[in-house]
Amino acid sequence: MTSSFVSLKRAATLTVVLLAGTVSAAVAQLGMARPVGQRIVDGIIAKIDNQIVLRSDLENIMAQEMARAEGKPLPPDMQCRVLQSLALNKLLLAKAETDSVVVEDAQVKGELDRRMNYFAQQIGSEKKLEEYYNKPIKQLKDDLRPQVKEQLVQQKMQEQIAGKVTVTPREVRQYFNRIPKDSLPYYSTEVEVGQIIKFAKVNSAAKQAAQAKLNDLRARILAGESFETLAKQFSEDPGSGAQGGYLGFFKRKELVPEYEAAALRLEPGQLSPVVESQFGFHLIQLIERKGDQYSTRHILLKPGTGTTDVNEAAKDLTKLRTRILADSLTFAKAAKDNSDDKQTGASGGLLQNREDGSTYLPLDKLDPAIFFTIDTMKVGGITPPMPYRTDDGKDAMRIIWLKSNTPPHQANFKDDYQKLAQAALAEKKNKALDEWFEKNRGSVYIEVDPQYSGCKLLNSVN
């Protein structure tokens, strides 16, 4: 069954889904083409009210689909399916504008930061990512910001339309019973894995050295040297350092609290004392206030590799592990209350399957570090604290818990209830979204380039 929900969700998340494996696959997910010598002529191929679909939108996604297919031919109607999904997304945006559905700038910034951290980690570093695109990180974020904002608005609209839809156990059973027995899926070995992460602490000597260096730079600026020149020379923020430390305009609550509080206490041109945040140590200069926005430049110093102390993190995790194994604390509660990884901590420490959102991970798709760790573990086992490096390069320690290990089998109601419930819920959300599209597709103006008229955009959502 091809549903509007499946098509819509896939198009809306094509640049969110993180492809494991090659660097080229990872940067392809950035949603931007790498600069080349020959410029491709762009153009509008569809209009839905005041929303437009560009030829480059279609070509970029088709290129991603071809990379995903790994040389296998795409279905003949793939281009129309992608264009249909793009049109459905634009319908969501058009109605979001009518209904005054917006997302906060802080949410957009957070999503941009998350993606850039991931892509930098995949390609090797922020510097390598900048070299690949020949642009600073700040420019890459600026290029991607409109696309990310659109995706977040689309997701918010989907949530408003179908977010409150639920399924009962009876509906899950009915869904399962409708599946022909010879069509039941076959699942390979799957595991549920949890983790609790504690970040290493920067040692006091490294902190003092960073603070002393920034105080020295502050004195040099006050004595007449150029802030911009010193930022280019010493700042360890690759995005702003090359721009003389310039960060541009931000609204309140868009930057980390410590930075914002220090910046807003300044007068234009004034320097802050050394400020510590989660990113390191900053020397800040306020440039200008404009309404509810302000612009700054900064010099960032990060205590380098080898200056962190993992001993305290290891001690904390050892204590938690002892309590969990003694049954005085559940792993889920320990993760929720103590893990420095807020994403997995919120789910009781369990890693999620990016394909379907479940906690069941195919064994052949596990991160090698986890695969070889759990390979000899028994269900319920918890590792001692182990060194770990986060996606954004932070030193940490973690313990890993093997919650379950399900052997290969054909789907059944008892063992696969969670998957079946998710599928039944998706089907019910499909219906809600289909009804919404049927109700609203006739309320918008649509115009399609004759070259793509055979795709019958928005004529049918089924």
TrEMBL record:
Q: What is its EC number?
A: 5.2.1.8
Q: Per the record's keyword annotation, is Coiled coil included, yes or no?
A: no
User: Which organism is the protein's source?
Assistant: Hymenobacter tibetensis
| Official protein name in the record | Peptidylprolyl isomerase
Q: Which GO terms describe its molecular function?
A: peptidyl-prolyl cis-trans isomerase activity
Any idea where the PpiC domain is? Answer: 188-288, 291-401
Which Pfam families is this protein grouped with?
Rotamase
Task: Please state the span of the N-terminal signal peptide per the UniProt entry.
Answer: 1-25
Q: Which InterPro entries does its entry note? A: OMP_Chaperone_SurA, PPIase_dom_sf, PPIase_PpiC, PPIase_PpiC_CS, Trigger_fact/SurA_dom_sf
UniProt entry keywords in alphabetical sequence:
Isomerase, Rotamase, Signal
Q: Is Isomerase tagged as a keyword? A: yes
What domain of life does the UniProt record list for this protein's source?
Answer: Bacteria
Q: What class of enzyme is it?
A: isomerase
